[in-house]
């Protein structure tokens, strides 16, 4: 697989998003192990999760940190720790009733880093990302906390998620080389993050599109909703999902899509997109679709 730069790391051009990675009834542990193994075999080396990801009960309890514990245990079982860059996020919290909230207070973000270190079983987190802006905390205060976290040595690099161009620039001005990435939504359906990609390219930051196929339902309907992707896929004898990921990779050399996958076949299909080189004519058709 092609490689791209994420801070001090070289990673595969396609990563694996672990938001829906859980061992509930339809996704037994062995299936998860097989999916991670398939990802590794396909050259996927960036694994992205968050302390807010994971299954919870009807009150939302028990979810915080579950996916971190799960992926750490699977990597240990496979003896694959040294083969991956393991990224996580903090600042997004689960609430009773299965809802979501933000907490970017300095105290919470410091506690979140320490808790993720323990759950992941590492001495330093390769990439720790601020999950999303918190309307209760001014962003410049958040940046100051991120600087403190970066200087602590508990994380190798800091990332932002759901940040706008000015927030990225402000954070880079304070964090410098400690800032490695931005993770925003980007897909055939959601293209308004183009300005953030441009800023990342200018500043030398990796851009990690979340939901690069539009989410689980849209990924399945990609061919119907975006005919140009289906047409080019048919012409090339590949999946429309592969064409979508190849199109995203062609946006900029800093783009590293992180599609989710519950089955080995899904991540194998996604990883193969890194070997597709779309022509200028194909890109124009996709851009116009």
UniProtKB/TrEMBL annotation:
Gene3D superfamilies assigned: NADP-dependent oxidoreductase domain (3.20.20.100)
Top-level taxon: Bacteria
Domain NADP-dependent oxidoreductase residue range list: 13-288
Short name of one Pfam family: Aldo_ket_red
Entry keywords, A to Z: Oxidoreductase
Protein name (Swiss-Prot/TrEMBL): Aldo/keto reductase
Source organism of the structure: Nocardioides pini
Lineage, top ranks: Bacteria, Bacillati, Actinomycetota, Actinomycetes, Propionibacteriales
């Amino acid at each position: 697989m092609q490689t791209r730069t994420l801070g001090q790391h070289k990673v595969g051009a396609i990563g694996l998003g672990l938001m829906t990675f859980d061992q509930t009834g339809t996704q037994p542990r062995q299936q998860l192990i097989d999916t991670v193994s398939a990802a590794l075999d396909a050259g996927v080396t960036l694994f992205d999760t968050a302390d807010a990801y994971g299954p919870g009960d009807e009150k939302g309890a028990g979810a915080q940190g579950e996916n971190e514990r799960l992926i750490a245990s699977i990597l240990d079982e496979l003896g694959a720790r040294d083969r991956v860059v393991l990224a996580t996020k903090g600042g997004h919290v689960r609430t009773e009733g299965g809802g979501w909230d933000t907490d970017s207070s300095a105290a919470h973000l410091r506690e979140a880093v320490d808790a993720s270190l323990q759950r992941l079983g590492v001495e330093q987190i390769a990439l720790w990302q601020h999950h999303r802006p918190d309307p209760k905390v001014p962003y410049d205060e958040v940046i100051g906390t991120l600087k403190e976290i970066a200087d602590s040595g508990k994380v190798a690099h800091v990332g932002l998620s759901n940040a706008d161009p000015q927030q990225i620039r402000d954070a880079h001005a304070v964090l410098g080389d400690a800032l490695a990435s931005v993770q925003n939504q980007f897909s055939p359906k959601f293209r308004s993050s183009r300005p953030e990609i441009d800023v990342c390219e200018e500043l030398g930051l990796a851009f990690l599109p979340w939901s690069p196929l539009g989410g689980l339902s849209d990924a399945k309907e990609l061919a119907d909703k975006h005919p140009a992707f289906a047409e080019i896929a048919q012409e090339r004898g590949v999946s429309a999902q592969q064409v979508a990921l190849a199109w995203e990779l062609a946006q900029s050399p800093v783009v590293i899509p992180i599609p989710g996958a519950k089955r080995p076949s899904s991540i194998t299909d996604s990883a193969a997109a890194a070997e597709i080189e779309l022509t200028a004519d194909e890109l124009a058709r996709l851009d116009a679709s």
